[in-house]
Amino acid sequence: MSEALKVGLLGVGAIGQILATALDAEPNRVALVAIADQDRFRAENVAARLKTRPAIVEIDELVRRSDLIIEAASQAALPEIVPRTLRAQKDLMVMSVGGLLEHEEWFAEAERQGCRIHIPSGAIAGLDGLRAAAMGRLSLVILTSRKPVAALRGARYVTEHRIDLDRLKEETVLFEGLPEEACRAFPSTSNVAASLRLAAGKSVEIRVRIIAVPGGSENVHEIQAVGDFGRFRVVLENVPSPSNPRTSRLAALSALATLEEIVR
């Protein structure tokens, strides 16, 4: 029997806790050896509920102990975890995909070091079709995201523009722009836009629209793509995580699917 893949988990928020529980269930294939989180008390609580009782460590020790590091923290954590992981020639799975945009040097460094940056599909489907379409002439991609008010509270764009979400009575377009702009404006909820950019490439026109839905309960993403292949439209109605309305359960499941491909 081959040795279990040693995994280190950075971040045990909504997605991180789902991943930790799933990893704990299959210690013979994948071993969760360490956890790092800026909230040590939260990390200790999560570890105490697991059979394998992973160590609570700082980032450098997390990298040292692991074969694969899974980032489930935030975009802000990437400048710290990505370079350290690549210098150690370890593989990395990134959930906060928006933080990868405008950092092409990380992918180049991963290639030089002989390691990989894994990017799960996250809260959407159809990325394989989008990558295929980009092999030809992909004219336009449009992402329309409809989000419950709870998923938008505290977002940088909402705060800076002093948008009173509680005053909204009907669906309201809050933002229209490029994926890169969406990632800066909504760093906690823009991973879908980033995934589309990474799949389609820098030269493709991608338009992002974010709509607040008072009384809404699902994160709904509609993707339209047009090119010389024809056109397609994909709609996902995602159930939010009970502990974090900004996070879709499908995002955590996509990380597990990616991990399954790695260890297969």
Topology diagram in text:
Layout: E1 5-10, H1 14-24, E2 30-36, H2 40-48, E3 55-56, H3 59-65, E4 68-71, H4 78-87, E5 91-94, H5 104-113, E6 117-118, H6 127-134, E7 138-148, H7 149-152, H8 156-160, E8 172-177, H9 179-185, H10 191-200, E9 205-213, E10 219-227, E11 230-238, E12 240-241, E13 244-248, H11 249-263
Parallel strand pairs: 1-2, 1-4, 2-3, 4-5, 5-6, 7-9
Antiparallel strand pairs: 7-10, 8-9, 10-11, 12-13
Helix pairs in contact: 1-11, 4-5, 6-10, 9-10
Summarize the structure.
With 264 residues, the chain is an alpha/beta fold.
**What class, by secondary structure content?**
alpha/beta
Sketch the major β-sheet: 6 strands, parallel
Percent range for helical residues? 25-40%
Q: How many strand units?
A: 13
Q: Can you tell me the CATH architecture of the largest domain?
A: 3-Layer(aba) Sandwich
Low-confidence stretches: none
Elements, N to C (H/E)? EHEHEHEHEHEHEHHEHHEEEEEH
CATH topology of the largest domain: the name is Rossmann fold
- The fraction of residues in strands falls at 25-35%
CATH superfamily of the largest domain: NAD(P)-binding Rossmann-like Domain
Task: Estimate nothing, just give the exact number of structural domains.
Answer: 2
What is the overall number of helices?
Answer: 11
Give the overall shape, derived from the CA principal axes. globular
Q: Span from first to last CA? A: 13 Å
Give the overall pLDDT as a whole number: 94
Q: Quickly name the level 1 CATH class of the largest domain.
A: Alpha Beta
What is the alpha-carbon Rg in Å?
19 Å
Strand order of the largest sheet: 3-2-1-4-5-6
